[in-house]
Structures are given as structure tokens and as C-alpha cells.
Amino acid sequence: MASLLEAIEVSYGYRAPRWVIDGVSFSVEEGEFVGIIGPNGAGKTTLLKLLDGLLEPQQGEIRLKRRAMREMSRREIARQVAILPQEVTFYFNFTSLEIVLQGRAPFLGGLRLEGEKDVEIARNAMDKTGTLQFADLSITELSEGEKQRVLVARALTQQPRLLLLDEPTANLDLNYQVEVMDLVRARSQQEGVAVVMASHDINLAAEYCDRLLLLKEGRVFCQGRPEEVINERVLTQVYECHLLVDRNPLSGSPRITLRSGINQE
Amino acid sequence: MLSLLLLLIAAMVVSVSVGSSEVGFWQALKVLGHSIGLSDNPSPRVAEMIVLHIRLPRVILAALVGAALAVAGGIYQALIRNPLGDPYILGVSSGAVLGSVVGLISGMAGNWLATQIFAFMGAIVAIVIVYQVAKTGGRINTMKLILAGVIVSAFFSGITMFLFSTASGSTITNILFWMMGDLSTQPLSTIWRIAPFVLGIMVLLYLLSGELNLVMVSEENALQLGVNVERMKKGAFVLASLLTGAVVSVSGAIGFIGLIVPNMVRLLWGADLRSHLPLTALSGAGFLVLSDTLARLVLYPTELPVGVITAAFGAPFFIYLLKQKVG
User: Read out DSSP for B28-89?
Assistant: First the structure.
């Protein structure tokens, strides 16, 4: 069976030798949860934008269900791929429900007039992300964490086959981190939605992802199951700091702990 | 929506019924009533002339221009994601003024289509310059946007002034009054010419409102949700500038309607353009009809250019928005 998403030797950047993304290849299966980790500036966000077709690779190709993404219209892509952006600033007083309903846009006609069914999908997603009480409030009045959950609701409302998450927990309190991640994982397992998550939080990625892609300076440093990627030797080379890897006592996933003070010795 | 429409009609009736000549309020109402078949006894000929051929065209024109400028402002605000978007502030109006003046002076005063085209070209040139100057790395910088608008306005006004100084004396007064925003000099025939054009463009813009909603969050947002952003954006910019050019060539540069009205409507009824645009059109029409009525009454029996009234409301509102908005 062909993969849902394939990236083949993808390079992207401003000019030739200085690629931001440099010859990256990997694939994502239906229902799989893949994490992209790596230091700041390694190209995590850029890679996600390439996977959503928001950026076009200068070299290589990205295929969605065997079709080259650069040959697909924006609308075709939007019906299958949703992205949760890292940060969105809102300038106008749309209500939260209006923002969530925008997730239905790829499926609607010219004026994007939503039907009852669409509103139901949106309200359902808001219910699950605990944002239904904000439905009629202006999005500009919400806190960063509340906005983030509204945007998660919107991504779910888009009912994608591939869900791209860019630092999904960056603005969330601990309880919502777990809630949002559990919700996404459930969608992935129950409905076969593939998830690709960029995160600087290695422990979170190790806990939720089936597979990890470790990026360093735009290249894939290594990829594999969390146990394969997360070990002291690899991480020390990529992050250039000392850390301890053991196991999360609850789930058994690999876990890192920073070692402080060692650099001064 | 319906109540707003009724309010607009009421404002128009009141506006038709007051004025600086001796035809009184009730007399004017009688003329109106007679003309739409509500009453059988005809009014004196003079009263009929004044109401139907002087005041009524003016009020209809005010409604049309107000709606067009307000809608253009609403569209610019959506496109640049900034509540300060307004044809006047962005320099689009002065571009259209310059275009019209070029058209008028180069001897095409009688040719309304040529004047329209010149006005439109001026508007487009202005918005392209301002947009390019204010854009830094895909983002529109508010400070740069306002400065670019001011500079483009000043530059275009400078050229307009230069053209004046080379023009013959008799036309100058006329053009000057028109430049400050004037609704009084147009016959009904002008209105019938621009009305289908203005209404047509507003309908086209309305068809884009679903996609523009997505752009109001961010261009990437719209892209991600399946919109061909570049094409849609160009279309909307051109249509909004056409709209501005069309009305400016007739009424002059009336400021601040495109600023006040869409923002007020958004505060009162929300940002969704699918309801925002029609409400903005109705409110803009009403606002300019009332402003024009004031312009006729404040210094009775002399008249003010209506641009003076809208500026008196608009400038403080502009400062308020600027204070509210950071960045």
C-alpha cells in the first residue's frame, strides 16, 4: 500500500548551498503519528509548510496519496491537509465560532455559506477542545492558550486526512497540553488521520509519536521509533548539550533530563 | 438589515425635504408623494423642479457615493488586515482626483468615460505604490502604510496643483470645489451612468466576501483553506480601486467615510464580510446623505463642501483608531 504522504529528496531554501531544508526524504502512513524534532532553526516549521504545499520545494517532490502536490490546486490540498500554525495574530473581531467554521471553507461554494451540518461539526470540535463557551466571544478577547484551543478545534473541523501541528502545546497549560494531545491521538487512532507534529519538546514527542524525525541544519540526522532516535549519543551531537535518557515510568517511552553544571567542569 | 434600509430611506426623504431654497419640508414631501403616485394634487412647477431635479439627484448621488466609498474602505481593510484602510488615507482618492483632473484639463471634460478611465488609472497607480512601500516581508506595516498614503497623497496633490496653475481661471473654481468633495453639481444623467457600474462592482466584491473573510485572518490562512490568494487579492484591489475611481471622478475626494463606516459596522455587528459588506453599504449611504444634509444647513444659506463635514467626524475617529492600534 502506498503511503499517504511521501517526501522525496526535498530541498528548499533561498539560494543553492544554503538550504533551509536539505534533501529530506520520509513517508507517513495513514493513522501514523510522526514527530519532527530538532534544535531551533533546524527547519521544523519550514518542513511543515512544505508538507502543506504552502511552500514549494526547489528540488524533489512531495506526494499526497501518490499525486505530486505541486500539481494539486489549493482547494484539493485543503480538503485533505490541515495545519495548526504556531502563532496567529487576529486583527478583526470574528467570533470564535466563525473562526472554527472557517475550517469548512475548503468544502463550501463561493460565498462559503455554512449549512447546519457544518455548524454541528464545528460545535462538536469546540466541545471537545473545551472552547464551546467562547463560541460567541470575539477571538481577539481570548488568551493565547484559549486561542490555541480554538485553532485546534478549527483544524479538527477541517476533517483532514493529514494533520500538521506546529508546536501545538507551546501556549497551553499542562492540563490542556494533555487534553489536546490525547484528543489528536484519539482522532489519529480511531479515524486513521495521519499526524505530523513539529515540537521542541522531546519528551512530548517521544510520548505521543510512533516515529520521530530528528532534524539538524535542514537535514534528517536520524529517524525511527522514539527508542531508536532518543539516546544520549545522538542527542548530544545534535543539541550540543549533556543529558540523561531514561524511561517515563508511566508509559515506558524514552525521556530526557537535562544535566546542569556539566559544561563548567 | 431591513431596519437599516428603512433608516436610509427615511434619511433620504428628510434630506430631500430640507434645503436652502424656499420650498419647505411639507411642500417637498408633497412633491415626492405626488411623483410616486401617493397623492393626486400636483405641486407648483418651481417646487417640483427644485425637489426632483436639484435635490433628489443630489441625495441619490450621496447615497451611491457613500455606499461605494464605505465598501471600498471595508475591502481595503480586509485586504491589508488593518482598520486604517480607507481610500482617502491610502492615497487612492488623490490618485483618482489627479487622474480626473488630467482627464478634465486635457479637454475630455465632456467625455465621462474617458474621465472615469483616467480616475481609475490614478487610483490603481496610487494603491500599487502605497502597497509596495508598506509591504515588508509579506506583512503590511501600519506606520509605513500611513506614511506611504500621506506621501502619495501629497505627491499627487502636488501634481494636481501644478496642473491647476497651468489651467485657465474659470474652470479652476469648479474643479477646486469638486476636489473638496461636492455632490451638488451633477445632473440625474450622471447618476444613471455611474449607478449600474457602482452597484455592479459592489455585487462582484460581495461574491469575494467568503474568501476575503479567510484573508482577514492571514494570507497563509486563506491559502491553507484552499483560496487562490494572489488572484483573488488582485481582483479585490482592482475592484475596490475601480469603485473609488468611479465615485471620485463624480463627487471629488470625500474623506473618511471608508474609515468610519466599516469600523463602526464591525464594532456593532461583527466582522463577517458576508453581512458586513451589505451593512456597510447601507450605513455608508446613510452617513453621507446625513453629512450632505448638514453641509447644506450648517452655514445656511451658504453651503459647505460635504468633505468638510466627513473630515470633522473622521479625523477624530482616525486618531482614536490609531491610539487603539499598536504596531
Answer: HHHHHHHHTTS-SSPPPHHHHIIIIIIIHHHHHHHHHHHHHHHHHHHHHHHHHT-TT--TTT
